[in-house]
């Protein structure tokens, strides 16, 4: 026989704030921030893709994913430099990082475009696109992290590297 379950405590509300002990991913306020950011990011991606004329190579999606990787690295490093993941920093991370940049970038389009290119006359474009996006995206994220880490962290890295 199992022990009786404890009641979950007060619910979240405008007056009471987040429920104590409730994980962030279950708090309506944070879910709303991610949804709002995701809607704006997805709309932004759509508008950019509509503005770039088709060329047979997914230039817009590749650029979106690379810029998104850079911006996410920059955002997360900047927030980490300013303190722990709580309060307004957590809200910004969820709104801008998980939401906006999560909606802006698109792994599914990368995968679909790669398959589409692979089925075409020049399959080498599929490899160039997939690996190019991955490699340049990682470099862009690294650059964003380096810039977001600020000069103090660069000095610390130099000291630790000796």
TrEMBL record:
Catalytic reactions of this protein: fluoride(in) = fluoride(out)
Region of interest: Disordered: 1-23
Biased composition annotated in UniProt, kind: Low complexity: 8-19
Binding site for Na(+): 102, 105
Transmembrane stretches, start-end: 30-48, 60-80, 92-112, 127-148
Compartment annotation: Cell membrane
Primary location recorded for the protein, binned into one broad class: membrane
GO CC annotation, single: plasma membrane
The keyword Ion transport appears for this protein: yes
Membrane found in the keyword field: yes
Means of activity regulation: Na(+) is not transported, but it plays an essential structural role and its presence is essential for fluoride channel function.
Record's keyword terms, sorted: Cell membrane, Ion channel, Ion transport, Membrane, Metal-binding, Sodium, Transmembrane, Transmembrane helix, Transport
Any Gene Ontology biological process: cellular detoxification of fluoride
Taxonomy, superkingdom: Bacteria
Topology with respect to the bilayer: Multi-pass membrane protein
InterPro entries, alphabetized: FluC
Any one GO molecular function term: fluoride channel activity
Functional summary from the UniProt entry: Fluoride-specific ion channel. Important for reducing fluoride concentration in the cell, thus reducing its toxicity.
HAMAP family (UniProt xref): FluC
Family: Belongs to the fluoride channel Fluc/FEX (TC 1.A.43) family.
This protein's name: Fluoride-specific ion channel FluC
Source species: Naasia lichenicola
